[in-house]
Amino acid sequence: MKRNAYSVTQVNAYVRNMFAQDFMLRSICIKGEISNCKYHSSGHIYFTLKDDRAAISAVLFAGNRGGLTFRMREGDQVLVTGSVEVYERDGRYQLYAKEIERDGEGSLYLKFEALKRELLEMGMFAEEYKKPIPRYIRTLGIVTAPTGAAVRDIQNIAARRNPYVQLLLYPARVQGDGAAESIVNGIRALDCMGVDVIIAGRGGGSIEDLWAFNEECVARAIFECQAPVISAVGHETDTTIADFAADLRAPTPSAAAELAVYDIFELLEEFSYLRHRLCSRMEQKREAVKSRYLELSHLVWAGNPKNRIHQKRQYAVSLEEKLHHTMREKLTELKHRTGMLAGRLDGVSPAKKLSQGLAYVTDQNGTRVGDAAGVRPGETIGIRFRDGAVSAKVLEVNAIPEETERERNGRGKRNFFRGIDGRNRDDFG
Fold first, then answer.
1. Which of 136, 253, 328, 396 registers the highest number of CB atoms within 10 A of its CB?
2. pLDDT tens-place string over residues 330-352
3. Model confidence over 258-270: pLDDT tens digits?
4. C-alpha torsion 108→110→113→118, nearest 10
5. pTM of the entire structure?
């Protein structure tokens, strides 16, 4: 027998039409408590409306937020007016809110505020009791569900930042009955093992899902723990009693791992920089000490009388060598000059002229006679030759007419040849 088969789209469309035709569902007011509220960047508000036995998904679109006079938060008791419709694509129904009014605060939120005030008055949240988180750790304790996303995030980040840090996981229940007691046992067990830091937390959820971390016993276990405790519950917008009691609050489990586990590669880079800086400073210091040593050594050497005497002796030797060199140069210069003067004197020497055939004539008083006008007839004159001297009597004085330059030149040539062999040029024919 052939059956009629409907597609999923047809069924969802049919159910949607049924909801749309229902008069009550088209305009309904529902009372409940806000849970898991999220403000989207688009302006829409997604939340869950619940009571003690059931819950329904709801959304308030950005176009309907004009009448909202308060900021919705976990635990608010509200009256929501809108319509219940089917989201055809997913096949689920939800409440499309048009108006939201405050109807008092939820019981869980009131319980949260009451416990918060009580523990605050007891001083469990005081800053003076907060223990600092050590910068460098060896062991990290983790109290969370073994199968949740929180433990995987912590493991991944710890392995990336420092694979040498030991992780100790206490598999605790973080939701439902007995969750608070399980968290307390995990904190105490890891504290007895002597871990350096403990991370207690879980992933996000509604206020009911996170309520185990709002129990007084968990807050007391965190406060009494000897090891520093980092609370990492839910998302950044989630706040629990454990966050106030912890030594440090992290917005997410991933952020808690970032805060607890130091980056060993950054540390190694810092060590390398410090080593380079230290070596550079040591080299500068060594050069400064070496320079100072050389300076002091020079001062000591210069101040030593023996060295000073040696230095002065070297200086005296240098001056002596310079003096000898200067004297040799001066003597050479004087020898050269003397040779030149001797040559000039030799050129004008009377003895040399006499050796060339010339004679030296003097009057009777011994005065040199340079020309014929200097003597008179009858006078006695002296004539000196190269090899001797004679006395002669002047018989007469004949003046020689002044010669022309041509004649003087010719006579000079004759005298030259006569000077060679004592004969007249005419003798050579």
1. 253
2. 999 999 988 888 878 776 766 66
3. 999 999 888 888 8
4. -100
5. 0.50
